[in-house]
Design goal:
The protein is an alpha/beta fold. It has ten helices and seven strands. The protein folds into two domains: 210 residues, Rossmann fold (3-Layer(aba) Sandwich); 46 residues, no CATH class. β4, α4 and β5 form a beta-alpha-beta unit. The structure holds nicotinamide-adenine-dinucleotide. Nicotinamide-adenine-dinucleotide binds next to α1, β2, α4 and α6.
């Protein structure tokens, strides 16, 4: 869709990081934005900073894991602005990171799925009926590169992001089958410089062994810890500023692309998974299979 002045967007997790950058990108295009977040003070500060620059915003404290709260977000957005055009389901968390799947607490699974997966579902269920009535609009779901590839020691996050990709693909297929001109984009960024990643990288870079021991899987050898550090250094080298990632995601929306892949340097990981699946299929289809 063409993003233009006069439209209205809603962005969840908008008080910092990628959500704030996405809101800024939309506001720069003259779009009014409902900003949703659980962090009340940070949300207020963010809204004040945008308002001081003459932008039109509506801060609404919202926990996306609560379907009723997201329904209130939708009614407040419509009451205040009178329409909604772009819905950005961005809020996301990590929990249980650094543990193998079999040692990840059930509570961590529940928290991560409640925010990262159900938060997106709640956003779709609260807003898409309004886009259907209007006969236009776009849904943007923020998944991750971890939604396309495995993520050892981050199983709950990885599963939640694979599910966000699946939800987005399914929504797009359903809207297409119903002949509804509503776009869907699922963003799968690699590392973006936000408070979420900065804490993790600072810790690993500092190399405090005692603290590392708390955050890395138990029983890793020295070599494996070195490998983890090397992988973090690789990630840091390719870490993208949030405004750059946001612009790439908004460009994908404007081009009506289903997938917004902001980081080209992870192609090998995506190809490796796809080729594993395709070669299994080829084996099944061969005379011996
Ligand atoms: N930073 C990265 O490298 C990276 C990479 C890929 C995907 N992502 C995804 O991008 C999104 C934003 O990540 P970020 O790095 O900006 O994170 P962040 O932690 O810097 O910001 C997330 C914001 O969401 C808010 N939030 C958390 N739980 C919420 C809830 N239940 N309801 C409403 N708001 C809530 C937080 O208060 C915070 O303001 C997430 O979905 C994340 O998984 C981030």
């Amino acid at each position: 869709m063409i993003i233009e002045a006069g439209q209205v967007a809603v962005v969840t997790g908008a008080a910092q990081g990628l959500g704030r950058a996405l809101a800024a990108g939309l506001l720069d295009r003259g779009v009014s934005v409902a900003l949703a977040d659980t962090a009340q003070e940070r949300l207020r500060d963010t809204a004040e900073a945008f308002t001081a620059r003459g932008r039109q915003v509506l801060p609404v404290v919202t926990d996306v894991s609560d379907a009723a709260a997201v329904a209130v977000l939708a009614s407040r957005t419509l009451e205040h602005f009178g329409r909604v055009d772009v819905v950005v389901n961005n809020a996301g968390i990590t929990a249980g990171h650094g543990r193998p799947l079999w040692q990840t607490d059930p509570e961590d699974w529940q928290r991560v799925l409640a925010v990262n997966l159900l938060g997106v579902v709640h956003g779709i269920q609260a807003f898409v009926p309004h886009l259907v009535t209007a006969g236009a609009g776009h849904v943007v779901n923020i998944a991750s590169l971890a939604g396309l590839t495995p993520m050892p020691f981050g199983s709950a996050y990885c599963a939640s992001k694979h599910a966000v990709v699946a939800v987005s693909e399914t929504l797009r297929a359903e809207l297409d089958m119903a002949g509804l001109p509503i776009g869907v984009t699922v963003a799968c960024p690699g590392y973006v410089r936000t408070p979420l990643t900065e804490a993790m990288f600072t810790l690993l870079q500092a190399g405090d062994e005692a603290q590392l021991a708390e955050h890395l899987p138990a029983g890793l050898s020295v070599d494996q810890v070195d490998q983890a550090r090397a992988s973090v250094e690789h990630g840091m080298a390719g870490m993208m500023e949030p405004d750059v990632a946001a612009e790439r995601i908004l460009a994908a929306v404007e081009a009506d692309r289903l997938y917004a892949l902001t980081h080209g340097d992870f192609e090998d990981r995506v190809r490796c998974r796809a080729e594993g699946i395709l070669s299994a299929l080829a084996g099944q289809n061969s005379p011996a299979g």
